[in-house]
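Thread: quick sanity check before group meeting

JM: Hey all, I'm pulling together slides for Thursday and realized we never actually wrote out the predicted structure for the chain we discussed last week. Dropping the sequence here so it's in one place. If anyone has concerns about the input, flag it before I start.
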Amino acid sequence: MPSIVPSSWQSRFAFPLLAYTFAAMMAGTTLPTPIYALYSQRMHFTVLTTTVVFASYAGGVLIALLVFGRWSDAVGRRPMLLAATGFALASAVVFLAAHTVGQLLLGRLLSGLSAGVVTGTATAAVIEAAPEAWRRRAVAVATAANIGGLGAGPLLSGLLVQYASYPLRLSFVVHIVLMMLAIVAVLVAPETSGRTGRIGFQRLSVPAEVRPVFVIAATAAFAGFAVTGLFTAVVPAFLSGVIGIGNHAAAGAIVCSLFATSAAAQVFAGRMDARRAMAVGCGLLVIGMVIIAAALHFSSLVVLIMGAVVAGIGQGISFSRGLAAVAEQTPPERRGEVSSTYFVVAYVAIALPVIGEGLAAEAWGLRTAGIAFASAVSVLAAMCLAAILVEEARTRR
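JM (edit): ok, ran it. Output follows.
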């Protein structure tokens, strides 16, 4: 769809303003990561409860994807971006007042609703608002805003928790300020959508001719998003309980390194052949998870960082190029529902495996559960790699 950004002073600033809004909102979704350890000490809950609180975020994302996934095409980008900032503000306010696990669950659910509404809407808005000189790089900018925001959240809150006052409050005050600025940015930026389509629930389906590549790509996405869920929910506990380092800034930096390398990989892998890139991504996921298992076994911070970097690259390549491989095989009129199905698989992977990690930690201890989780993801990624290689050999024959 061509951009309808008017020729005015607003159009010159629309692109950076919308990219800022996207990044600031996504930063809020990972902001609590270094703070979970403080909540667990204050409210006396275990790693299992941490994983359940984290997983409620994925529930909010899935609700938003299914209910609001098509709304921005019908009502416009700005109203939906404002709705997303409203959810983000509500989430930050709940976290500011949180004294119970139920309030943490509500805060994460609202954060998930914000992410589910903003992801598709802001991606489209940033691309549509791009000036001619940035048109070819607009997708990369949207990707960087999305994943870069996810990485900036734990880095920012980790530094504030470790080195500033009010560790349970200050990060959310800062995010409220960022969201107020985002509201101003959205109001200043002009509407970019032609408001076509209609309001309705997002349909989920995969055409029969797409299913072979979809199964492989979605399985790779499941493995990669399970890794991001593990890092966002449990890495601070690994750092303090297994490696013996209680620095919250270090925990935030490790999580940030995963997202930063994922964002870079998605940008630079854009020209790779989709299927071969998926194979490379799955191979790197296997290696990364083996490194992470070794880091937990030997209680090594350096090895854990290495694992985060390798796994982040693998996740970024396998997810983005997997989506591209699916899109290549999907009829244009069905891409919306197929892409939504792909994202639903990915966000289920954020929640369920991480809860399994929490249950395993209760039964076996944090170190053993982490090694088992890394091994399981490694096996899953290896199966995807084998399936891709078999499919390529069959195609050549």
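AS: nice. The CA atoms of residues 238 and 366 lie 7 Å apart. Residues 1-5 have pLDDT under 50 and may be disordered.
JM: adding both to the slides.
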